[in-house]
Amino acid sequence: MTGQTFTDVVRVDHSRAVKDSTFARSYSRTPSFCVYNDRFTQDCLGTSPKLTLVERRDYQFAHEAGVYVRPTNSVYFTANFQTCDPVHLYAIDAKTHKITQLEYPEVVQANGACNYQDGVLYCSQGDRTRPSGLVHVDPVTKKSETLITNFYGRDFNSVNDVVIHHETGEIWFTDPNYGYHQGFRPGSMLPPQVYRFNPKTKECWMVADGFAECNGLCFSPDYKLLYVTDTGAIQAHAGPGDGHQFSMNPKLPGTIYVYDVVNGRELHNRRVFAFCAVGIPDGIKCDEKGYVYSGCGDGVHCWAPDGTLVGKIVTGGITANFCFAKEGMWLFAEKDLFFCELGAKGCLVKIECE
After folding, report:
1. Radius of gyration (Cα) for the chain, nearest Å?
2. Contact in structure between 96 and 85 (CB atoms under 8 Å)
3. CA separation for the pair 257, 275 (Å, rounded)
4. Residue 15 DSSP one-character state
5. CA 226 to CA 308: how far, in whole Å?
6. Is the dihedral of CA 126, 130, 132, 137 positive or negative?
7. 62, 335 in Cβ contact below 8 A?
8. From CA 333, how far away is CA 167, in angstroms rounded?
9. In 3-state terms, what secondary structure has residue 288?
10. Domains in the chain: how many in total?
11. For position 220, which CATH number holds?
12. Containing structural domain, residue 133
């Protein structure tokens, strides 16, 4: 029910959970704050965490992106193609919680997004006739600008998520095959890869490969690390078809990798940071202390900088993405939109929100 709040803080019984998988899975069912390690309460939750159901609809309206923009005091997010074709664009007023549907014609089948120059930089996945790329929208003037659509002549597959390296001003993004899997993009011309784009010189570099399906990405607070999620476990395993027959293959990755960022430009020393035991890790972000959060199959999971799972914000269902704002965290749980009050602050809040 809209307006319902959840405040339960549940501590995991590790001694039982490690020997009883059914019991271990039970922690994913009820909205709550699930503590796997005391660092979650000490460094992340604060003294009075609260999860509030802001909006519930009968289709997957709250799926991806999640971008706070100061001039409008609103959070921008995208719907899920699975129940919303073409993908709808929305904004919620951070004060009144009024939700507005938006119309930006240059943004086609949008997915992830980030704050760029106090506007929204959308991952426009494209369709059968329009290319995939990055589209910047000024939500005040409603003007759109397409920044890039191809890698030196080879069209992108379906650009998925994007972040800004604020020290260099360059744009980093992932390009998996989900547009093809969902049947609205042609066959791929490129492998699933991570790219770095310089908006001033218009140069683009491929900086990481070797993924089943690269997805979310984020920098550590000091920009010395880059985290990338691989969601290859979710694919249209029988071929693209009509684009609505996704399934889970637990033998494929549901993994977060971490790289060293060298000179703000190169990625070195790829290694596993964490594996998601419930669903797959989709959107990913860091807080000011370097804790890593990712949207997973039962809510938002949180890992300490050493890769230890310390806690979960459990929504009880798939939460593909989320975003930090000044007052807390917005969680996009498909048919449900939640707001969470907690002690942790996103590492970009001072840059993007204050």
Report:
1. 19
2. no
3. 9
4. H
5. 17
6. negative
7. yes
8. 32
9. coil
10. 1
11. 2.120.10.30
12. 4-353
The pLDDT confidence band at residue 25, using thresholds 50, 70 and 90, is very high
- pLDDT at residue 91, rounded to an integer: 98
Is the pLDDT confidence value at 349 over 80? yes
Q: Which letter, b or e, does each residue of 170-195 get, where b requires 16 or more Cβ atoms within 10 Å of its Cβ?
A: bbbbbbbbbbbbbbbbeebebebbbb
Place of tokens 């003037």: 141
Token pair for 243:
């684009």
Per the document, the length of the chain is 354
CA distance 95 to 68: 12
Global pTM reads 0.97
Rounded CA-CA distance 32/53 in Å is 12
CA distance 187 to 270: 28
Angstrom distance (rounded) from CA 172 to CA 219: 10
- Report the side by side order of strands in the sheet with 203-208: 161-165, 170-175, 193-198, 203-208
Q: How far apart are the first and last CA of the chain?
A: 32
Beta-carbon count within 10 A of 139 CB: 18
CB burial of residue 300 (10 Å; 0-12, 13-18, 19+): buried
Phi/psi-derived region of residue 250, left when phi > 0, alpha when psi is between -120 and 50, beta in every other case? alpha
